[in-house]
Amino acid sequence: MAADTQNHASRRPQGRQIGYARVSADEQATEAQEMELRAAGCDAIVEEHGSGASRARPALSKLLREIGAGDTLVVVRLDRLARSVSHLLEVIEDLTVKGAHFRSLRDPIDTTTPQGMFSLQVLGAVAQLERALISERTKAGIRAAKSKGKRPGNPGIRERRPEALAKVTAAQKAAYGARIQATLNQWLPTVRRMRPDHTWHDIAKVLKPRGLDWTPERLRRAVKWLVAEHLADPALLRKSPPRLPEDRLMTLVAGLHTANPELTLREIAGQLERLHERTPRGGSKWSPSSVKNLIDRAQRTGLIDAEPAAAAE
User: Cβ of 180: how many Cβ atoms within 10 Å?
Assistant: First the structure.
């Protein structure tokens, strides 16, 4: 047994062990959970006060944004983290994308071990079965209601009752907020670096080569929501100053270079061509020298830090 424990400990990732302790609003404190988490070796503990029925948890969202590769999120029990199996799997998927791990002290879930991964796969199968059963029950209920002459759906929404419409609106806002926060770390750093000196159109163009297909309006609306929730600086929404065409090209090239300094001049030129950007002389074909001229100019103006120029190839 001692040997097994030693082997298990040696396989554990070398990153931080970060505890997450949550209690409902009517519960007193998180001390009991904190004691277990510290005994399990957690370097830091994030506390949250909120209902388990809600996914709107600012402390958990911030933790998921900031956790790093090799770190492990630790909870005392699964119900402290997720409100359902599907919610749990979403959180673990977010951690996996970032190279982080998950562990529950009182449940057989530990994504750093083969046994824990097997338990997770079983949970995934249960969640899929649960969704299928719910779908079948819903369809059966609709068929039974129709046979009795009843109309499916929420009567309050059909009758446009204010309280029912308010609940739908609140649910839609919560779902929108969850979607925004799930991808925050992929695009917000670029927005913070480029706003308000650059237009939303230019920022959307910088994000597109990285697989983030934002429209300028959707991007602006997402940032507006973050500002309203006090998760972003209101200065991001200031109006961009007017720019000459060549100034706009300079800031666009600077944005591409800053977002990925490993890109060569030729690769940046290729991205500009795929974005259908015209050269300073109006041409459609970009050369590495044209890109370098704009990067050098951006360095002279302080738009990007002075550093060795990117390679041509």
Answer: 19
